[in-house]
Design goal:
Blueprint: E1 3-5, E2 9-15, E3 27-32, E4 35-40, H1 44-51, E5 60-61, E6 64-65, H2 68-81, E7 85-91, H3 94-107, E8 110-111, H4 116-129, H5 136-142, E9 145-149, H6 159-164, E10 179-184, E11 201-204, H7 210-221, E12 230-231, E13 234-235, H8 236-248, E14 251-256, H9 266-280, E15 285-290, H10 297-308, E16 314-315, E17 322-323, H11 330-335, E18 341-346, E19 361-365, E20 377-380, E21 390-393, E22 400-403, H12 414-424
Parallel strand pairs: 7-8, 7-18, 9-10, 9-14, 10-11, 14-15, 18-19, 19-20
Antiparallel strand pairs: 1-2, 2-3, 3-4, 5-6, 5-20, 8-16, 12-13, 16-17, 21-22
Length: 425
């Protein structure tokens, strides 16, 4: 049994936290009179989100409170009049995205996620040259060299606890056997100090120069000689030492967060990571690992891919899925006035800035969502993994985890609202 209760208190174990891409699934949540408390294993973000009390909110049409039924009717009217809707944000679970796909097919909509810029950096590399990737479990159990490139993973609070500094591993890998390296600017290397005090290696360079560092390491691993003393401010001798460590590692990993590589053509830097990994597999086992998937990003991308054959940024207006990584971004279709209505979905966060465009706008958001404008329709929705059950896909895309219902919410779920819209359409 994972749930114990008395008249007013229930405790649920093995709860999956849906509020970042690593989906920690070991939380213990207490529900006392519908007020939640994280008893075990919650990071600061999990505690904030689970323990946030539900505010009173109502469906609205142009700022005026209405019934949910009336709001759904208004959504249908907007979408029926729309030639090319944009359905974006997409912060929901597997069932929600399945319904989004059906609605997009019916309305000829364009789809993009709120974190689409980060997602597409990875997608472009995968489509162009492919990659060799690993999983959280493989890093935990095998990796003796972990290189954080452009990220310190602190946006994923428990990554070090659950993956890097382990109390147990399958193959007796000890913390002192694991070498941590950071490449980039202003990275917090403190989490990379192992429990016995062993410090990580830090290569301090501008974020835009990480690709140059990785390319140089690739060349050194391949046996080339660099006719310079420094690369991006890093001494070549330091790079030679790291290149040798990469060749002799039993299982090496390069970790990046595509959303944090926010500079022009960052996909070329990610491509450098992946090509270096491929070359290293001639000598040893090496792999890449991408940190992301927040707000259901990996879920949305995966469901879109398996149902349409394409990742996100796909247009159903032509009667078939048409994919374009640049043209169909939220920013571009709004800027170029290629859409005439917007449906924005965010059920994991109330702090996302919803785009404000001069077209009919529908927002399905958490009850405490703060908007800088009054949308044509606002529908407060419940949160998967707190208010209703569901499934969500982890950052490494190999696992879908079940989400539990740990409290009762007066608000409808995104899947149920979309179901009603689809039926009425």
């Amino acid at each position: 049994m994972d749930k114990k209760s008395n008249a007013s208190t229930a405790i649920t174990k093995d709860v999956t936290c849906p509020f970042c891409g690593i989906l920690c699934d070991d939380l213990v949540i207490q529900n006392q009179n519908n007020k939640l408390k994280v008893i075990e294993n919650g990071c600061s973000k999990a505690i904030e989100m689970f323990q946030k009390e539900l505010p009173e909110s109502s469906a609205q049409i142009k700022g005026k409170n209405v019934s949910l039924d009336d709001a759904i009717d208004s959504v249908c009217k907007i979408l029926k009049k729309s030639h090319t809707p944009l359905i974006a944000g997409l912060g929901t679970d597997v069932s929600g995205i399945r319904n989004v796909m059906e609605l997009a097919d019916k309305t000829g909509a364009i789809l993009d996620h709120m974190h689409g810029n980060g997602l597409i950096r990875n997608t472009l590399v995968l489509q162009d040259l492919g990659w060799i990737m690993t999983t959280m479990a493989e890093i935990k159990n095998r990796a003796d060299l972990v290189i954080f490139a452009g990220t310190d993973a602190t946006n994923f609070s428990r990554f070090y606890e659950r993956v890097i500094w382990n109390k147990e591993s399958m193959f007796k890998l000890k913390n002192d056997d694991r070498q941590i390296v950071y490449i980039g600017a202003n990275l917090n290397s403190k989490p990379g100090i192992n429990p016995n005090g062993k410090r990580p290696t830090v290569l301090d360079c501008e974020t835009e120069e990480i690709g140059e560092i990785i390319s140089s390491l690739h060349a050194l691993v391949a046996g080339a000689t660099l006719d310079v003393n420094e690369v991006a401010g890093i001494k070549v001798k330091t790079l030679q030492t790291l290149a040798e460590q990469m060749k002799t590692a039993k299982y090496g990993v390069i970790v990046w967060a595509p959303g944090e590589l926010d500079f022009p053509h960052a996909e070329l830097t990610i491509q450098n990571f992946c090509e270096t990994v491929k070359y290293l597999t001639r000598f040893t086992r090496f792999a890449g690992f991408s940190l992301g998937g927040n707000d259901g990003g990996m879920t949305a991308n995966s469901v879109c891919a398996w149902q349409s054959g394409y990742p996100l940024r796909v247009n159903f207006n032509k009667g078939y899925p048409d994919y374009d990584a640049y043209r169909y971004s939220t920013h571009n279709v709004l800027k170029n006035k290629e859409v005439d209505s917007l449906l924005w979905i965010s059920s994991f966060s109330s702090n996302i800035n919803t785009p404000h465009a001069s077209i009919p706008t529908i927002v399905m958001g958490m009850p405490d969502t703060k908007l800088k404008f009054k949308p044509d329709v606002f529908i407060p929705v419940s949160t998967p993994g707190i208010d209703h059950t569901g499934q969500i896909i982890r950052t490494d895309s190999v696992v879908s985890l079940p989400l539990k219902k740990v409290r009762t919410s007066p608000y409808a779920s995104v899947p149920s609202v979309l179901n009603q819209v689809i039926e009425r359409m």
